[in-house]
Predict the structure.
Amino acid sequence: MKIHEIGGEFALINRLAGTAPAEHPDLVAGIGDDAAVIDSFYPGQESLLVTTDMLVDNRHFRQDWATPFQIGKKAVACNASDIAAMGGSPTFMFVSIALTENMETAWVEELYRGMSDVCRQHGIVLAGGDTTCGDVITISITLMGRATKQNLSLRSDALPNDILCVTGPLGASAAGFHLLNKGLTPPDPIKLKHLTPGCRLDVSPFIAPLAGAMIDISDGLAAEAHHICDQSGVGVEIYADRIPIDPLVKAAAATMGCKPMDFALSGGEDFELLFSISAENLQKLKAKKVDAFIVGKVMEASAGRTLILPEKKRVTLSGGYDHFR
Amino acid sequence: MKIHEIGGEFALINRLAGTAPAEHPDLVAGIGDDAAVIDSFYPGQESLLVTTDMLVDNRHFRQDWATPFQIGKKAVACNASDIAAMGGSPTFMFVSIALTENMETAWVEELYRGMSDVCRQHGIVLAGGDTTCGDVITISITLMGRATKQNLSLRSDALPNDILCVTGPLGASAAGFHLLNKGLTPPDPIKLKHLTPGCRLDVSPFIAPLAGAMIDISDGLAAEAHHICDQSGVGVEIYADRIPIDPLVKAAAATMGCKPMDFALSGGEDFELLFSISAENLQKLKAKKVDAFIVGKVMEASAGRTLILPEKKRVTLSGGYDHFR
């Protein structure tokens, strides 16, 4: 059924609101008023976090690759990943969406079912949004969260001599993208890592109180390391041979005749966390059985930003993905 | 200059952040981290407000009608209007934007200059966002605000026998739109009301403590009255001959051979406020020299929703603008 057949915009909003988790004791007014009203803030000890991400059809997702359920899951996960990277817990979500005039209601409902799936997993409440009409499906999500002062992990909190770690293997999402883009069929784990990535809210609460800077890897390890350097006023050494890369990613790279390390350094959307941590705190983290893969070291700014290749050759760390290049 | 010529996405963000009001004592981390960090919440006595609106090129704005400066102004004003309608003050803003690949940096800078202009006027701080690439320029704004419990005005707060008022003349924006759409030249006041509408944050702090329900008129008086009825569980009578309409709007309607009342009832984007208020509180409001034009009365739900035409004929109140009809 088309959206106009079910009664238009407001009928659609009512349907969608009914399928999503949209109630919470702190939510005085959610979907259906001019603005959401949220009470019960966190005096003194906690900060409010707000992140926002825009996903455009055929750029950030492809309808011939992903189901609307998968697109919805990814849309929420990439925002939840930003909250994880701050050391916080997600709370309230706002979804603005441009839908095309003649699209099927079922598609939109599946999208929201996917979003709701991730919301339920992480206790996220859909608190509002805007539904409008456009020529290109565009999803803009704003996600709020909360973090204690102790857990809050800014990009500017890295110190020279800290160790740089990642929470898991990198490059799978980029490998999946490039295989799909060449019309090849990725193995399921790689395909799913690209189409429905998770976020590391499972480990971020353990890492956050011990880490310095933290960032999620959405534009490749190199770009994220540069962000930490920019904001902390530090340099960095990345050890290429210590970047964890799944054997399936290596196999995919071989199939396509490219280097797996490039997927890890410059490919995006792994949504693992990159963090700086002291040697002492890294021991504490390991005692908690949290996976942490050492990939480099924070340096003084004067040392620059270096990638140390497997053959020990030192090269300047290049950038990552940029939407306008 | 094109965006890739100035150095891509991050260079653009730095430029834009430099031109906007982006600092505030409560803003621990703004543009440049995974999420904004906001402190100093309002324990007990105040609520956090969050509203979001998406504007799509050629649907919500037209580049052949409006300058990017004007588009930026309108984008912020329509969100600020939602905060006004809740009885709140705007605080922090997040802008997600899809830009086309080859667009001029100057256009984007003018857009942000327009946004910043309205931000400065109302003390709004740009705290974050997302910049990405798309085939259609799409602007998604999330605006936060704060409201005291006393001022908070929900759509659900209307009571039978309350008077319904609006804060100013209606229909000018719709008249402007229809003139432009026919290739005619609207008189300046009407043209500007469509291209750069204001919002009623100037009067909402006086109205909010005295009003019942309040809503901003973005989809026409009829649609907003329906929203109040739906959420307050009440009926309504609207007096057609008391709806304030500017003489220029009447002249524009005459030019196009249509009824000025239709612009007021079903045309959108006036961004005046519609509110319910007791007779006693309306006297108090008038004592404060706040303009309030009586346009109707809140009824019991069983009385239905009625438009009383100038000739006293009673008709069912129809709907307003719907993006999917």
Observations:
- Chain B touches chain A through 73 residues (CB under 8 Å).
- Residues 321-325 of chain B have pLDDT under 50 and may be disordered.
- Chain B has ten helices and 13 strands.
